[in-house]
Amino acid sequence: MTERQPLLLQSENTASEGRYPPRPDVRNSPENTLVNVQSEESIAGSNESLDKSTYNPSLHRTLEHPTSNFDTLVHLLKGNIGTGILAMPDAFKNAGLYVGLFGTLIMGAICTHCMHMLVKCSHELCRRLQQPSLSFSEVAFCSFETGPSGLKRYSHIARRMITTFLFITQIGFCCVYFVFVAFNIKEVVDHYFPHNFINVKVYLTLILLPMIPLNLVRNLKYLTPVSLAAAALTVLGLAFSFFYILQDLPDTDTVKPVASWAQLPLYFGTAIYAFEGIGVILPLENNMKRPEDFGGSTGVLNTGMTIVACLYTTVGFFGYLKYGENVKGSITLNLPPDQFISQMVRIAMAVAIFLSYTLQFYVPVNIVEPFVRNQCEDQRTKDLASTALRIVLVVFTCK
After folding, report:
1. C-alpha span between 359 and 364 (Å, rounded)
2. Exposed (0-12), middle (13-18) or buried (19+): which is 372, by Cβ within 10 Å?
3. Neighbouring residues of 322: CB distance < 8 A, sequence distance ≥ 6
4. From the record, what ranges are coiled-coil (predicted)?
5. In the list 1, 140, 221, 367, which could disulfide-bond 162, CB 3.0-4.6 Å?
6. Using an 8 Å Cβ cutoff, are 127 and 290 in contact?
């Protein structure tokens, strides 16, 4: 027999008016005795706890130009597929064919899991603090602030560390993108005009001119066509690369199944660099029209990262199988230089990386921009300061 629990109910009048203390209801008490009296403070605390548990951060976000699921997927793909994918055959050389095969898939699964953890932590902290969204560094700060009391003293240190490391990482990606584009264009020009003496710094300067206005765009919604064009060029470049790679493939016993232990750190370094999109995860999710579609087994994140992991594994596996120990740091360098298609692959990949720069640049500029804008008073000065900041950072990554 189930024991009946006493109910504590407020009368309708006092509950609605809130002017008198709540009166206990002892109708379900077997002895009609007072069993519990809740104060107004405890009820307020219960309501506050209920509000926190039912608070939905996505319903409180005010976005001027939210991105659709497709927009977010395109940005996610281009945020992860950069210069690292071209180095995956070299990474497989340092791991061995089968260690690289399973290692890359496992690493992709781990990276995806960590991205899910980051988003879930952000959602939980948003509910606790009733904030619509949090940045990467704010997630670290609030985790320490709302965690064990012994860790609260380190909250500011955690935020500064995350901000610093994230800024350096993303700025580093931008620098690599500049160098990659400049050197690939120079190699193509040198192939067709072998007697020219144009220094690579000239190409860097020429790239800088269109790069500045492209990075003055401040909204991810408007960057979707840029990321889409970059994704299309990447697919085109990889398709033509496989045209050469899949011709006359040797047997798998012609390459090492497992490399030496001394080479494994080089594999992990290249593979971790290739999965470079962790910094763009929260900005993408925070700008979605329907952020509830970001997670889940068939959500944007799993869909995008499955494509990324499969592409990395495929390029690395077949690239290493084709060229073996002669594979170079970028698979495009192994393509026959005297053929027009291989030169077009280099141009396509260079333009794709050039267009991908805007998404990688979005993260570091949004770290520094709020601080710069807070130093200004009127809106016009804030906009000018933001524009100047973007120009300075783009020039810095070029130099």
Report:
1. 10
2. middle
3. 89, 244, 245, 246, 249, 250, 334
4. none
5. 140
6. no
Provide the residue type at 63 as one letter: L
Q: Under DSSP, is residue 376 helix (H, G, I), strand (E, B) or coil?
A: coil
- The residues near 340 (Cβ < 8 Å, ≥ 6 apart) are none
Q: Which two tokens stand for residue 361?
A: 């640049």
In angstroms, the Cα distances linking 231 to 155, 180, 259, 383 are 38, 17, 32, 31
User: Is the sign of the CA dihedral 170, 176, 179, 181 positive or negative?
Assistant: negative
Tell me how far apart the alpha carbons of residues 342 and 335 are, in angstroms, rounded to a whole number: 6
Question: What is the spatial distance between Cα 125 and Cα 139, in angstroms, rounded to a whole number?
Answer: 7
Record the tokens describing residue 28, joined without a space: 């379900």
Q: Is 162 left (phi over 0), alpha (psi -120 to 50) or beta?
A: alpha
Residue by residue, DSSP assigns 217-275 as ---HHHHHHHHHHHHHHHHHHHHHHHHHHTTTPPPGGGS-SS--GGGHHHHHHHHHHHS
Site of tokens 């790239």: 207
Neighbours of 397 (CB within 10 A): 23
Alpha-carbon 28 to chain mean position: 55
Spatial distance between the Cα atoms of 56 and 130, rounded to a whole number of angstroms: 8
List, for residues 222-279, the tens digit of each pLDDT value. Answer: 888 998 999 899 999 999 999 899 988 999 989 999 999 999 999 999 998 888 788 8
Q: Let me know: does 201 contact 399? Beta carbons within 8 Å.
A: no
Instruction: For residue range 39-49, list pLDDT tens digits in order.
Output: 444 444 444 55
Tokens coding 257? 């199944």
Q: What residue spans define the domains of the chain?
A: 12-43, 68-133+170-398
Question: Amino acid identity of 80?
Answer: N
Measuring CA to CA, how many Å separate 11 from each of 15, 20, 30, 204?
6, 10, 20, 76
- What pLDDT sits at residue 219? 83
CA distance 73 to 152: 36
